Amino acid sequence: MNKLPFAKRVQILSMLVEGASMRAVSRVCGVSINTVTKLQVEAGEAAEAFHDATVRGLQTKQLQCDEIWAFCYAKARTVREMPEDKFIPGAGDIWTFTALDRDSKVIVGWHSGDRDVDTAKRFLRDIADRILNPAVQISTDGWQGYRDLISEIFPWEASYGQVQKVYSNTPDKGPAKKYSPGVCCSAERKEIFGECEYKKISTSHVERMNLNIRMGNRRFTRLTNAFSKKLENHADSLAIYFFHYNFCKAHKSLKGKTPAQAAQLTDDVLTMADLVKVMDVRAAKPNRPATYQKKLPAPEISN
Question: What is the per-residue pLDDT across 147-166, written as a single tens digit (0 to 9) for each?
């Protein structure tokens, strides 16, 4: 079976997390679009397994949650008008829930699906399993689905606050109305339960993360045809992007550390080459957990 050279796979994955489209990657790297797709699927599964095994035992004090919108194959209103024989499973709007540690900037977890209680419950349960600090303070926007779930899933020592924003449409009926977001008229902090540190009830950091996602993941770029055509591929692309963000990308606000280093999950700055090594380990030993060992990397993923 033919296998892409190690350096070529690293190049392809590095381009995917820098906002390049799959067809652009195909042209620049001189490989077929099917090769890029297959590599993305394998890398996405490896990145998700690595995240699941590594991002645990966090001492998060301030957690911010938000949702970012995208769509698969077609927007919801278009899907509703489709004949039944042309319906595509997974087509329609996709909401990706994300949770960010305010201090370390690490993405604790994410989950894509509908913006409903079931999706939020799966997302929050996964987040709660990764955080050891029972007194975590959680901040979200004003979506009402969070209120009961957070009190149900997180320990009683946790506290919860909301930032409730009021938006208005732009007064202009021209391009500004079509392409610009609504104007934020007001923002109000509310303590829902627990002993919140009032000034730190905020979603600013996780909302800034939405911009990072749209800049680094081509599938989230609006008004193009780069949107996802399959829900599974959408999930794989997110897993690769968050691996790069958490483990590879140094932040100025963290004094040159990656979020994973700031959260004491790793001692080293990883690269996309490490993800390719994890992929090779999984291919050779499918039952081996994709973990990172501090100071003493497993031989299979070392140079």
Answer: 999 999 999 999 999 998 87
Instruction: Enumerate residues 6+ apart whose C-beta is below 8 A from 111.
Output: 96, 97, 119, 122, 123, 126
More confident residue, 294 or 130: 130
- Is the per-residue pLDDT at 179 higher than 70? no
Tokens of 23: 């067809």
Among 198, 200, 220, 276, smallest CA distance to 96 is for 220
**H/E run at residue 302:** none
- Among 235, 183, 221, smallest CA distance to 48 is for 235
- Token pair, residue 108, equals 């604790």
36: exposed, middle or buried (C-beta count within 10 Å: 0-12, 13-18, 19+)?
buried
> Domain 6-301 belongs to what architecture?
2-Layer Sandwich (3.30)
CA 299, CA 109: separation in Å to the nearest integer? 27
- Give CA angle at 205 (199, 208), nearest 5°: 140
Q: Give the span between the Cα atoms of 282 and 256, in whole angstroms.
A: 30
Q: Which helix (H) or strand (E) holds 221?
A: none
Task: In whole angstroms, give the CA distance from residue 14 to residue 11.
Answer: 5
Instruction: Report d(CA 59, CA 73) in Å as an integer.
Output: 39
- Site of tokens 């709660």: 128
Tokens coding 61: 């004090």
